[in-house]
Specification:
Strand order of the largest sheet: 7-8-6-9-10-11-12-13-14
Number of domains: 3
Strand content: 15-25%
CATH architecture of the largest domain: 3-Layer(aba) Sandwich
Helix content: 25-40%
CATH superfamily of the largest domain: Mur-like, catalytic domain
Low-confidence stretches: none
CATH class of the largest domain: Alpha Beta
Distance between the termini: 57 Å
Shape: globular
Structural class: alpha/beta
Radius of gyration: 22 Å
Mean pLDDT: 94
Largest sheet: 9 strands, mixed
Oligomer: single chain
Length: 449
């Protein structure tokens, strides 16, 4: 019996609570039912509101519990939590609290490269997958980037590599770590859910705390938090740096001539990277450091020269009447928006605002004043951003995305700006289900102009 089958066989005749009928949890249901578990889904929405997949699951024997107090009712022999729900809600309610991501670590038949960080993790995760594929590996890309990996285990082989983006929420209760752990950076984020910054940092550290001898840890040497992360005994520690720093073990850095090097060996010139911005140079260096024992330098340049980026991350939607519309809906924090703004040499019009994650928006002040001719503010954080950026930059307020795109277009023509950028510096949950829905609407509205 494989580890995968043994994992689900252990659920037989147990009451299993699946909390949240989201992307990561839905694929669990057929395996749980097949192995004789008694499955209850707890979700705020009703079966009808959750749609056809929920209706089909109900017909197959899944019980649904819904309503405003669904979390208070969630209990079982085993609880699979949704990544975005804090573990404290389940204290004393189960013998075993786990998640799809944790289960994958228990049964994965191949090495795992795990990536976390406040910024850049999706791009870095994608780059690692592409570098591995270019070197001839069969790479399985998933995790927080959108694809649950646990259901794919039956098709995985020992010689494959799993590349997994991991959020702080997924990491909080992890008891295993990936073979290669990458931390792109740590800056304030998700403080609406984490009780404080210390808890957020501790969650990020969990990506490497359970590593064993022979594993590898890659940290950002330019970040005040991650540069001090220490590997467990026997774990190889490496880093990446835009400032020329290195600590051996295949560390990757940018030299004064714009050449990316690994322990002195030239890998490629930064100018070969198609993606704009110094933050993307850092993302490449993180990916190179992560794959140092898998990928030769000959596999790097073909990816760097052709990869145009991940959707919703500085994604060019269209050009209309001399104005480029760029979707960077993934920018859910001030640091991400500042990185996006740094790409533009001429002043632009930016659309900002959204759900309040209790972040400090003061860091937006200088980048917005340097890079923006005007801003359009919307959503729950509009007033906070308005106060943070000062009075120098022209700004207007919008009621929704359609209003924002219309006003941003008008401002672009008034100011002579050639770019309208959606970079909210905030999460999406005040108006949208997720950042993808927000970016898709921006794309649709821009294409209608």
């Amino acid at each position: 019996m494989t580890d995968f089958n043994a994992f689900f066989e252990a659920m037989r005749d147990k009451s299993v609570a699946v909390v949240g009928f989201g992307v990561s949890n839905r694929p669990l249901l057929p395996f749980l039912l097949e192995h004789g578990a008694r499955v209850t889904v707890f979700d705020k929405k009703t079966v009808g509101e959750l749609g056809p997949e929920a209706l089909a699951a109900a017909k197959n024997g899944v019980t649904f519990v819904s309503g405003e107090k669904y979390l208070e009712r969630a209990e079982g022999d085993v609880i699979f939590r949704s990544p975005g729900i804090h573990p404290r809600f389940f204290e004393g309610r189960s013998d075993r609290l786990t998640s799809e991501a944790e289960a994958f670590f228990e049964v994965a038949p191949c090495p795992i490269i795990g990536i976390t960080g406040s910024d850049g993790k999706s791009t870095t995760t994608t780059l690692i997958s592409k570098l591995l594929a270019g070197a001839g590996y069969r790479a399985h890309l998933g995790g927080n980037i959108g694809t649950p990996l646990l259901p794919l285990v039956p098709g995985m082989k020992a010689e494959d590599v799993a590349v997994m983006e991991l959020s702080s929420f997924q990491l909080m209760t992890m008891k295993r770590s990936p073979h290669v752990a990458v931390v792109t950076n740590v800056t304030p984020n998700h403080l609406d859910i984490h009780k404080d910054m210390e808890e957020y940092v501790e969650a990020k550290k969990n990506i490497f705390l359970h590593q064993i001898p022979g594993d590898r840890l890659v940290v950002n040497l330019d970040n005040d938090v991650t540069r001090d992360f220490e590997a467990a005994p026997g774990v190889e520690r490496a880093g990446f740096s835009l400032l020329g720093k290195g600590i051996g073990n295949g560390s990757v850095y940018l030299d004064e001539d714009g050449v990316i090097r690994a322990d002195g060996e030239e890998i490629l010139r930064a100018g070969q990277i198609l993606l704009p911005g110094r933050h993307n140079i850092a993302n490449y260096m993180a990916a190179i450091a992560a794959t140092r024992h898998y990928v030769g330098k000959e596999a790097v340049a073909p990816v760097a020269e052709t990869f145009g980026g991940v959707v919703h991350r500085l994604e060019l939607v269209r050009e209309k009447d001399g104005v480029r519309y760029i979707n960077s809906s993934i920018d859910s924090s001030p640091t991400r928006t500042n990185a996006a703004l740094s790409v533009f040499k001429e002043k632009i019009v930016a659309i900002m605002g959204g759900y309040d994650k209790h972040l400090d928006y003061a860091p937006l002040h200088d980048p917005v004043n340097e890079h923006c001719a005007a801003v359009v503010l919307m959503g729950a954080t509009a007033a906070k951003i308005d106060a943070a950026i000062g009075s120098e930059v022209k700004r207007v307020f919008a009621s929704d995305m359609a209003d924002a795109v219309e006003k941003a277009t008008k401002l672009a023509h008034e100011t002579g700006s050639k770019v309208v950028l959606l970079s909210p510096a905030s999460a999406s949950f005040d108006m949208f289900k997720n950042f993808e829905e927000r970016g898709n609407l921006f794309r649709e509205l821009a294409n209608r102009l």
